[in-house]
User: Fold these one by one.
Assistant:
Number 1:
Amino acid sequence: MLDGIKENGMVLLGCGKMGSAMLAGWLDQGVPASSVWVIDPNPSEWLKSTLVHINEQIPAAPSVVLVAVKPQMMADALPTLQALGETDTLFISVAAGTPISAFEAAFGAKSRIVRAMPNTPAAIGQGITAIVGNGGAGAAGLDLAAALLAAVGQVVRLDEEGQMDAVTGVSGSGPAYVFHLIETLAAAGQAQGLPAELAMALAKSTVSGAGALAMAAQESPGQLRVNVTSPGGTTQAALNVLMDDDDGFPALVNKAVAAATKRSKELANG
């Protein structure tokens, strides 16, 4: 799957946190540094140490161009790649809020384009990325994109691009919800008399461990919740608050994901 990249090279446009995580994964997978060109105005010391090509003339026909710049930088960045439009080059975008149509407008409707939404746990190889392609990408383009993005975690394929806004609301923005849960759980522990450091250690490990158990267990998260809830016990007392129909988790999380999905649609529509 990656032989074409080794032969024709690949271009990474933007090498911030997400771009760096993906580059590290590719190099670990055996993609030679000599086959990677990175375009970034402020290359980090780590990037320089990888021995990839940095801010050099890119290949005439790279197998892949991965666009990892911030959406507000897109207008300046994309014109530099127009010559690769409607060729065999596969464009993969991890830019939030930028629809496939924007890339088709920049590169041509026949260009091979895959839109992807990774999340920040990709930085430690524990991310999940949703992908969807245009007609030009085809099955082969999606397979190549999945192989590359698997370097930073799981990859799932969407049925159509309209699902990407909800993906953004759930997994793209989702890590922030979990980080906030850790913050508030630790603060609640402090409020009940625990030292701050101990409360934070308990909160981090509880969320991390519960997530790992949810991934490893055969039971659903709902059943796992039932398994640790003794009728009339301490967990039940807490869940009576958290599962309140009006003010509990279900209502709050639904509103949060809906707000993130709505904002994703707004960004995509300019």
Number 2:
Amino acid sequence: MADFKNFENCNDAVCIDAGRVYDSCCDRDCLEDLRCFFLPETQTLINNALSVRLRSAEVLNVFIDVEPVNFNKGYYSCDLTFFFLLSFDLYTSPSTCPQVINGIATFNKKVILYGSCGAVKTFSNIVGEECRNHHTNTFSGSNTPKCVVSAVDPVPLSAKIGTIHDCYESSCCIPDCVCEALGGHVVTDVPRGTPTVYATIGLFTVVQLIRNVQMLIPVYDFCVPQKSCDHSTAEPCDTFSRIQFPLDDFFPPRPDSIDDQKDCGCFTTEANG
């Protein structure tokens, strides 16, 4: 196996075209009182509900729009729209079991990151949707850096039943690809005073601006797999016997044995959807 710590073992240097992360940030957001949207039949249940409990939260999709910042060359504004699938226990009376319902919530976030500058147009033999040439099958790539958003499923914190007070709460467009998670179109245009559900969740995100560049890197060796494929069909109990005993689950580590987590944040402006 090649020694990656010793540059003397470098066999050659090659030029590669790869995505370089020019800027990135991580953030934690406590999203309070997010308005939830439901299917018509679910909204009917909420109209007669007494209370609600948030069961789980999931990131369905993130719509990303990247635009250059005019007053600061090389910086880009990343407008992020998150769509969450939320699951609730809905109680219609004190003596009945809860009904499980699902809804959708949105959240808008803006992040400003450095993405460098470039003025080249990229062409490739990969057929693109923007431009099809019958002779050469080429397309022109955008010069805007690529924004990549990573997020774990949100932490469900709380939920409550409230009534719609402002008309702007209903001015929301949920795309069809998001509504498919519920199996139909959600109700967005409802009058004031209509009962609805407001949820509070915790969100952890990492945002990166990536640009493809040519880089010269040292080459140590080919990536030859060092592990053989496992074709074992051992008995379930034999497989179980090789699993390490989960000591941490029975004896949780003390606080002084856990590395301190340092917060980090983005330069952001945000608003609830």
